Amino acid sequence: MPGGAIAVASDHAGFDLKELLKRDLQDAGHTVLDLGTHSTQSVDYADYGAAMGEAIASGKAERGVLVCGTGIGISIAANRNPAVRAALVHDETTARLTRLHNDANVVAFGQRVIGIETARAALKVFLSTEFEGGRHAARVAKLSKGPVK
Ligand code: RB5
Question: Which letter does DSSP use for residue 13 in this model?
Fold first, then answer.
C-alpha cells in the first residue's frame, strides 16, 4: 500500500484504542493525522466519521483508522463519503481479506468488542497487505459507480 499520511479518528468510546493505535503507527514511522476526538468526553461518532471522509477525499490522508464503541457507527459515517471504503474489522483474517478483495482504504475497530492485541495485529496486517486486483478490481470499481441499471 502507499506510504502517505494515515488519519486516525474516534469518538469517546474509541478514544483509548485510537490513542494506542496512533502511538503504534508513530512508532512504526508513519505520518499520523489525528482528527480527534481528544478525550473521553462524549461526542458524536458521525462527526468523526465525516472528518475521516474529508481527510481521505481531500488527499490529506491516504489511509485511515477509525474507532468507536462497536466500530459500526463511525464506519457507516465514513462510508457516506464516496472516497472511502471503510471496513469494520474483527481480526487479522478480516483485515487481510478486506485489503485483498475490497481495497479498503480505512479500517474500523470497535473498542468495546475487540481485544487490544487483536486490534494491533489486525492493523499491521491491514497496512501490509496489497490489493489483489484481478477479478476484484471491477467489483471495487462498481462501488464508486453505484448500482447496475
Ligand atoms: C457510543 O456510546 C456508541 O454508541 C458508539 O461508540 C458506537 O458504538 C456506535 O456505533
Answer: G
| Cα–Cα dist 118/36, whole Å | 22
How much is the CA Rg of the chain, to the nearest whole Å?
A: 14
Instruction: Measure 71 CA to ligand 1 centroid, in angstroms.
Output: 7
Pairing of strands 6-10, 63-68: parallel
The finding on whether 47 has its CB within 6 A of some atom of ligand 1 is: no
What's the gap in Å between 146 CA and the centre of ligand 1? 28
Contact 107, 8 (CB under 8 A): no
All residues at 6 or more sequence positions from 19 whose CB lies less than 8 Å from its CB, including other chains? none
Atom 3 in ligand 1: which residue has the minimum CA distance?
Answer: 69
pLDDT tens across 34-92, in order?
999 999 999 999 999 999 999 999 999 999 999 999 999 999 999 999 999 999 999 99
Q: Do 48 and 9 touch, CB atoms closer than 8 A?
A: yes
Ligand 1 in reach of 83 Cβ (< 6 A): no
pTM value is 0.96
Set 30, 68, 90, 136: catalytic member: 68
Domains for the chain: give ranges and CATH numbers.
Answer: 6-143 (3.40.1400.10)
